[in-house]
C-alpha cells in the first residue's frame, strides 16, 4: 500500500493513523519552497519537486531552484536530473518517476511533501487523470516517436483530424497547442478509443469526479499559498532582477 499505518508516539502504539501526502502549490514567490523545507525538517519528511523546469540540469537561478545548502537540510527529489537538450520529457515521465519515489518514501514511514508550481504535474500525482495508451510500451522509443512525428505536422491539419475522431477533445484544444492535440491523436491511434472517452471512464470510476479518477493516495493534505498583491509584486521584481543580473554576468 502507498500509505502505511504507523504509531503516533511513545505509549500510544495502539493508536494508528495514515501518513498523508502533503502537497504545497501556488504562484511563484508565495513561499512554497520555504514552507516545504520547514515542514520537511519539522516532520522528518522528504520533498518531491513538481516543477516542469526544475527537472532540468543547470538553469538554477532562472528556475529559482532551492540551493545546495537547503537541499542538505532536507532530502529533495526530482530536481536537476534531465538533460536540458532533451525535448520529449513529458508529464507521464514525471508521474511515473515521482509516483515510485512517493511510494518509496511512504514505505520508509516518512511523509512525502510535493511542492511546485506546475499544476498538471501535481494533478498527475493526486488523481488518476492520465491515459497510458499502451502501458507495456509507455516510455519506449516507439511511443515517443509517434507523438514526435505528429507534432511535425501542421497544427490546423492535426486539429481537423482530431475533430473527426474526437470532436469533444478537439473543442477543448486550440490548433496551436500541437503537443496536446498530438497526444489526443496518439491515444486514439494506438487504442481505437478517443481520449475524451478514456477520461469519462476515469471520472466514472468509484471515487472519481470532475477533476479526474480516484485519488492515488488517501488523505492528501493540500496547502494552496497566496500572497498579498504588494508583497507579491516586490518578490517578482526581485526575482526578475536577480535573473537579469545572472544573464548579464
Automatic annotation (TrEMBL):
Tell me the InterPro entries matching this sequence. Dimethylallyltransferase, IPT, P-loop_NTPase
Location comes to:
Cytoplasm; Mitochondrion
Q: Which controlled-vocabulary keywords does the entry list?
A: ATP-binding, Cytoplasm, Metal-binding, Mitochondrion, Nucleotide-binding, Phosphoprotein, Transferase, Transit peptide, tRNA processing, Zinc, Zinc-finger
Catalysed conversion reaction = adenosine(37) in tRNA + dimethylallyl diphosphate = N(6)-dimethylallyladenosine(37) in tRNA + diphosphate
GO-annotated cellular components: mitochondrion
Its domain of life?
Eukaryota
EC number(s) per UniProt? 2.5.1.75
* One GO process term, biological-process aspect: tRNA modification
Enzyme class, UniProt record, top EC level: transferase
Write out the GO MF terms.
ATP binding; tRNA dimethylallyltransferase activity; zinc ion binding
Fetch the PANTHER family from UniProt: TRNA DIMETHYLALLYLTRANSFERASE (PTHR11088)
Q: What does this protein do?
A: Catalyzes the transfer of a dimethylallyl group onto the adenine at position 37 of both cytosolic and mitochondrial tRNAs, leading to the formation of N6-(dimethylallyl)adenosine (i6A37). Mediates modification of a limited subset of tRNAs: tRNA(Ser)(AGA), tRNA(Ser)(CGA), tRNA(Ser)(UGA), as well as partial modification of the selenocysteine tRNA(Ser)(UCA). TRIT1 is therefore required for selenoprotein expression.
Q: What is this protein called?
A: tRNA dimethylallyltransferase
Gene that this polypeptide is encoded by? TRIT1
